[in-house]
Specification:
Blueprint: H1 5-19, E1 45-49, E2 52-55, H2 56-69, H3 83-112, H4 119-132, H5 138-147, H6 152-173, H7 181-190, E3 196-197, E4 200-209, H8 219-237, H9 242-249, E5 260-265, H10 271-278, E6 289-291, E7 294-304, E8 307-308, H11 311-341, E9 344-346, H12 349-361
Antiparallel strand pairs: 1-2, 1-9, 3-8, 4-5, 4-7, 6-7
Helix pairs in contact: 2-3, 3-6, 3-12, 7-11
């Protein structure tokens, strides 16, 4: 038996990640009694999709999975009329409905194309889960599945379903999507900022800190600090090394690094500091600057202008970004086509309404 709760959750999370799409389906109504997944009941069919049935038990399993993904531990049997539970189900149901029906349609299409999971593929997947979760034998693995009311047969069905869906998506949709040179160029021109590195600077600083007592900084202390900063600047203008003076007098933490700060994006500088920096040439030293910490001197060590990546270098990134958008768009069209061609027979009007609400929320036509 697996007694380690963390390991158990990791296993189930891994399994869910491999073969469970977004948890799906339907609204629990006050008129429909909620039962435990383990209870012995006569199955209630909610919908038939091309002759394949989707039952109330399927509904409950997906609802529980969806709520658990949100961090809610739920027992549908204990309190089926709980207001908070009903609200959560109302929120998740429409999209879950759409996902469930789409999943059935995609798997059906994959089976038409002859896709199936081989024994070797299933063994490799199981071995991978065992390795990731440091499970040493089959008894431990079976115990972990049992805690989730799952058998090896259930596991295989879920793996096969996920594999079929993946192959349909890749071969029927993604493999046929490409990005033309014109599309890539248009994206580049419209999103130049994404391929442009903002100007940056590196500076050195000297800080003359102004600290006061319980009553704060008085005028005399402030004037003394300012006079000291002016004297320090005179030394640097007179030819002394900025770094040498930093090591002798600076009160800033950067003293240990010769006063070095940066590189900094010019876009991240405060408006006041940006004005000071823009007035300097590389190697130049600012006037004494009054800050909340005291008085500061800045030396512009280096400056790098904004740089835009050439189109040729950005081509791969552009293709990835445009491809992602086109892939999603084409996949939605593909699923809509499957829906329009399908024979969907609803056995529960409230479940049907939830499904249609999910389609409308996504801006998709109702078959």
């Amino acid at each position: 038996m697996l007694n380690d709760t963390r390991r158990r959750l990791t296993i189930i999370g891994t399994v869910a990640g491999r073969f469970a799409g977004p948890a799906a389906i339907a609204l629990l109504l006050a008129s429909v009694a909620v039962v435990s997944l383990r209870a012995e009941i006569i199955e209630q069919v909610l919908v038939k999709v091309n002759g394949e049935i989707f039952t109330k038990t399927d509904l409950e399993a997906r609802q529980v999975a969806a709520l658990r993904q949100k961090g809610q531990q739920v027992d549908l049997k204990s309190n089926p009329t709980d207001a908070q539970l009903r609200q959560s189900l109302n929120e998740i149901t429409p999209q879950l409905m759409v996902d469930a029906v789409d999943e059935m349609l995609i798997v059906q299409r994959g089976k038409e194309l002859g896709y199936k999971l081989s024994d070797e593929q299933f063994k490799t997947a199981v071995d991978s889960i065992k390795k990731e979760n440091k499970i040493e034998n089959d008894d431990q693995f079976n115990a972990a599945l049992k805690q989730e009311n799952m058998t090896m047969a259930d596991l295989r069905r879920n793996f096969e379903k996920q594999m079929i869906m993946s192959r349909v998506e890749q071969n029927e949709v993604f493999g046929k999507v490409g990005v033309s040179e014109e599309e890539a160029r248009a994206y580049y021109d419209a999103h130049l900022n994404e391929f442009t590195t903002p100007p940056s600077i590196t500076m050195r600083e000297i800080l003359v800190a102004v600290t006061g007592g319980a009553r704060g900084v008085n005028v005399a202390q402030d004037e003394a600090a300012k006079a000291r900063a002016e004297a320090i600047r005179a030394r640097i203008v007179g030819g002394e090394s900025f770094e040498k003076v930093v090591a002798e007098v600076s009160d800033a933490p950067s003293k240990a690094n010769g006063g070095l700060i940066g590189p900094l994006s010019v876009n991240d500088l405060s408006p006041d500091l940006r004005k000071v920096v823009e007035a300097l040439k590389v190697g130049g030293v600012s006037d004494v600057v009054h800050t909340t910490r005291g008085y500061q001197l800045l030396k512009l060590e280096s400056s790098t202008p904004a740089q835009t990546m050439p189109f040729e270098q950005a081509r791969e990134q552009i293709s990835d970004r445009v491809f992602t958008g086109k892939r999603q768009e084409e996949f939605e069209k593909y699923k809509e086509k499957l829906r329009q061609q399908a024979i969907i027979e609803w056995k529960n009007e409230d479940v049907k309404k939830a499904y249609e609400a999910g389609l409308k929320a996504a801006g998709t036509a109702v078959p």
